[in-house]
Every structure is written in structure tokens, then in C-alpha cells.
Automatic annotation (TrEMBL):
This is AB hydrolase-1 domain-containing protein. Gene3D superfamilies: alpha/beta hydrolase (3.40.50.1820). Residues 130-142, 168-179 have a biased composition (Low complexity). Residues 39-122 form the AB hydrolase-1 domain. The lineage of its organism: Bacteria, Bacillati, Actinomycetota, Actinomycetes, Micrococcales. Residues 130-179 are annotated as: Disordered. InterPro entries: AB_hydrolase_1, AB_hydrolase_fold, AB_hydrolase_sf.
Amino acid sequence: MKVLPSPHPIATEGRSAEVQVLRSRTRYWEYGPAEAPVTVVAVHGFRGDHHGLESIVGYLRADDPALRVIAPDLPGFGESEPLSRTHDIAGYAAWLSGFLEALGIRGTAVLLGHSFGTIVVAGALAGGLPAPAPSSSTRSPRPLCPGRMRWAPGSRSSTTGSAPAFRSGSASASCGGAP
């Protein structure tokens, strides 16, 4: 794997690798120790690539340096080849399941989707992808509201979260209302 520096303020270095999934080459970046007890797979949005998630990866890793984060380029984006089948939600969901299987983390990885990535993650879970509960996190493309996040311990899903919250499965947050 090649080590690449991040241009973001909270820098993190990723190791680049590739794997065959559904007869297409997928390029991905891995941050943190391979033997970490928790692996987060971060799925980027439409028209993006893994670079769009580097600041999130940096913040998660700054919060917990032992956390492992894997950020693939979706098929047809960044450095990954297009799917060998139709590019639709079912195709991307099948790809995500195959990607996790190829890396040996299917059913154990925490899934974090951003924008279009939330649809891919939701499609895969709806299609039967096993995931440890609570295990998925989605982030819609709306502004963050720093200083106004309310955490709900014990929640089963997350709109945003920190590494300890991912680790414990207690992340849930909402924006709005009084800080």
C-alpha cells in the first residue's frame, strides 16, 4: 500500500490499495491500524471521491487514533472502474456488499454514508447486508451546526458521531434548538 498525505487541517495518512469487486477494480484508502477493534467504512457522495471524506476521517482519527477507517472510491468515481452492470442503487448496494466481503469485514464494519453514500448504505442494508447493530451512520448534505449537537446515548443510528460514539454504538445527534 502507498502512503498518501492528507491536505486537511487535521491530517491523516492513508494507505492506498485496490480490490476486484463484481468484475471491476475498486481503489480504496485505509487509515489507522489494520488490527483495530472497530473499522468504519466511509462511503462518499455523488460526483465525489474519497478525498471529500478526508476531513471526517481526520477528525474521527484525531478523536480515536486506534480507529480504522476505510474510504473507497465508488465504482465510476475517482480511481475506481465503473460497475460492469447498471449504475443504479441495486448495483451500488451489491457493490458495497461485495466490497465488504472482499476485505473480510462484511457484517462487522460500521457503515458511514455521506450524501449519495447514505443511499448506497441504506440500499445495501435494506437488501440484507448484515451489520452489527447499531452500525450505520448517515450524513445528509446540509450545514453542520457546531456547538449545537445533542447526543442521545443508546440510540441505534447516527446522523453524526464521534469515534467513541461509533465504538459504543451510542451516537445520535440533531441540529436545532437551544445549545
